Amino acid sequence: MTATVTVGEFSRLTHLSVKTLHHYHEIGLLAPASVDPSSGYRRYETSQVEVAQLIRRLRELRMPLPEVRAVVDAADGGSREETLRAHLDRMERELAHTRDVVTSLREMLTLEPAALAVEYRFIPAFRAYGVSGHVEREGIGSWCEFAFGRLGEIAARDGIVATSGAAYSDEFFTDDSGQVVAFLPVAPDQAPAEGVELVDLPGGFFAIAVHTGPFTDFDRSYGALGSHVAEYCEVATGPIRELYVVGPGDGPDPASYRTEICWPIRQIPTSPAAKG
Amino acid sequence: MTATVTVGEFSRLTHLSVKTLHHYHEIGLLAPASVDPSSGYRRYETSQVEVAQLIRRLRELRMPLPEVRAVVDAADGGSREETLRAHLDRMERELAHTRDVVTSLREMLTLEPAALAVEYRFIPAFRAYGVSGHVEREGIGSWCEFAFGRLGEIAARDGIVATSGAAYSDEFFTDDSGQVVAFLPVAPDQAPAEGVELVDLPGGFFAIAVHTGPFTDFDRSYGALGSHVAEYCEVATGPIRELYVVGPGDGPDPASYRTEICWPIRQIPTSPAAKG
DNA sequence: CTTCCACCCTCCGGTAACCGGAGAGTCAAA
DNA sequence: TTTGACTCTCCGGTTACCGGAGGGTGGAAG
């Protein structure tokens, strides 16, 4: 029969703190083999050391406990691998993102603020094929691939040539998830098509900034446009639109991308300095 | 004079949620330009959009608020750059670590558990030059560089040739920070030296595992040794020792490193299966 | 056989950076 | 004046634990 040890010993064996072991017991992730009914003392079996080690190592990876549980409970090696790989992917995406933002931040702090050209435009209402959904900000990349993939198919089939775009609700930005509509303009009498919606985009005034280059430093243009709008315009409510003038569909080089960021405003200011 | 806006508008302008703006007000990171004394309504100036944007972008980098505050309050660009760079470094270290552990985890899950050879040994008490300190687990790498750098100097000066090592208190592992002593064995009558202590390491029985290769998958050997000790030995209290048989000082190739991990036990088990 | 001390227990509160909701007050248009 | 959108404060919850208070246990020493 296997030997049993107290929390303290188990802690030394596994390098998990006693508090942590209490916690894992409480949430049912790693329960001691037995608990003395009168004293409440926990007793762990030496065979549990291995599981505890696994948990500790996963936690060192900053893997959330629910996922740790999934790995620990996983019956087959396949689903373990899967959870693990998903976590690794997430971490790597995070690092890539971090690197991008740091780079653009460094520029922002050291360089003079790039003179961002802002123009004002009235965009009339128009009809479009649309793919809409409630999207997490983190997953916007893959969602766009999906949405524009579908729109691209329809466009190719119907021979539509137009600049596609997307409308992002405020919540998408402020709450990190919200309604997004990817759209492809069509004629006002366009017939519905399988697999996409037919949406009507309302007209209105917009302050528009052109972002050149990859999507990684979008934030900078957004920030600058936000500042500009705050300073010179009366803001309107409603989703912000992006128009993908030159995008992934038009060539492989992200440096050549051109995106128009359209911020809804109430009217066109009489002069750029009118409110400054 | 600059225009002022409500929280809601400011939220739309900056893509920070109202809740977040409340929070930043409360902690004094970004206070509104004015607060209506009767209604409590916050009013932000459009010129504050820029700071808010900066904060948002730093937060997107997962930079802790105290550091954000440091960047925002920084008078000169130099100290901004510094904080930024420190953060970037930390993130990259984290990723590298993540990658390492994932790799070794993948092995652990897919491969058969490597047959870890464990031997038992009585190590008599000995005297050593020591560098000790309370060390954070995160900073163990640079601390070791410092400690063994100093020990190396002394060794070179005195012509001492011995396998150096380090003793890690339990708290170092369980609490992520604790006492660590780097040591270099010397003769029992060794005279004290400037810049290092003279320490006496107690003798005792140890279960010893030899870890071959770089330090990145130390965890695996530790886990295996922990499991082994739990299964077959009576554990003793006291710090775990590492002996750097072949280490960074002996050659540039991490793959050739050899480290003995010494786990204190009460006595040598009569047979490996004695307790199994 | 007691006494000691290290160990163990549970419960409560706190951490970071907010989110969600309740309940109530405010503002501007209709 | 009424509606409805907006705002306020306060309270509790989130994750994965840590720290401490107050009090019970267990094995060894005296």
Automatic annotation (TrEMBL), chains A, B:
Recorded hits in SMART domains, A to Z, give:
AraC_E_bind, HTH_MERR
Name the InterPro entries on file: AraC_E-bd (IPR010499), DNA-bd_dom_put_sf (IPR009061), GyrI-like (IPR029442), MerR-type_HTH_dom (IPR000551), MerR_fam (IPR047057), Reg_factor_effector_dom_sf (IPR011256)
Annotated HTH merR-type domain residues = 4-74
Q: Look up keyword Electron transport and say if it applies.
A: no
Coiled-coil zones: none
Q: Cross-referenced PROSITE patterns, in alphabetical order?
A: HTH_MERR_2
Q: Which UniProt keywords apply?
A: DNA-binding
For this chain, one GO molecular function annotation is: DNA-binding transcription factor activity
What CDD domains does this protein map onto?
A: HTH_BmrR
Q: Which PANTHER family match?
A: MERR FAMILY REGULATORY PROTEIN, REDOX-CYCLING DRUG-SENSING TRANSCRIPTIONAL ACTIVATOR SOXR
Output this protein's name.
Answer: MerR family transcriptional regulator
